[in-house]
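Hey, I was hoping to borrow your eyes for a little while. No rush at all, and the record is pasted right below.
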Amino acid sequence: MKYDNIPFISSETLIAEVKQELKTYFEAGAISEVLIPTFIDQALRKLKVLVLRPEEAIIRFENYKSELPYDFAMLDYAISYDSDIFWQTGAQSFTGYWYKNLVGQCDICNPCSPNVETYETISVLTPGYRITMKHPRWVRVYFDSTSLCTEDCENLKVSSTDIIKIGNNKKASATFENGCIYLRYFSRPMDDNHVPMIPEILEVEEYVKSYLKYKFFELLWHSVMDESVRQITEKLQYYKNEQYAKLQAAFNYLMTKTRQQMADAIVRTRNRFSKFHIK
């Protein structure tokens, strides 16, 4: 399933629904909303890259160091290149073009007048667009950065003398002194209140709400010390089971393949035996 075009929405509405449902506990001061952003982030992490937004960026290393995009969450792949990056029209492209500032400041990798911004015309494709670079080279990601890479990240398997290390503080270091790196990465969008945004998918929204209620009752269970423990325990177990069920429902939806993906899989299977002249 493709998530490039799925909109992300603020979590405010579902937070309001949960607070209304647990209104009595909030008004009594038994639970606080301080940890809501943390709980939402935990819920989304359980769904991994399926609820992250794919992004692209170009970063420049100077004196062996660089900064990652502010919204960086997980690396898909990284490629080093010598010169300009070219964006070419590929198959199944839409009619029309849009513009994207690739580097933010045109003097990052290709010097020009500091008063001129560099834009490239990009043909929007279905499902994406073809990228062409001069002398592209794979860079290897240091093994200590595995947790910040996708499971099938090519940069963890390639053999290269150019190595980059990704830090949790949005910083990166490299074994080469200077150079440009094209990044394909996943981001976790935040709203103006620094609360994680979520994809506009009903199953995901229901799971996040269920997870919030479970975590609130988990906090209550740890704090009560009287006869209400039994009642809190029963509700905790209920919401624990519910959030597991919602998690599975969200996974099932997110892992559903489109008709195009199923057709592509059939073609790949047929092509595996083409050299044996099997039809």
About this structure: The chain has two domains: 8-48+192-269, 53-187. Residues 58 and 182 are 5 Å apart (CA to CA). Residues 89-105, 113-129 have pLDDT under 50 and may be disordered.
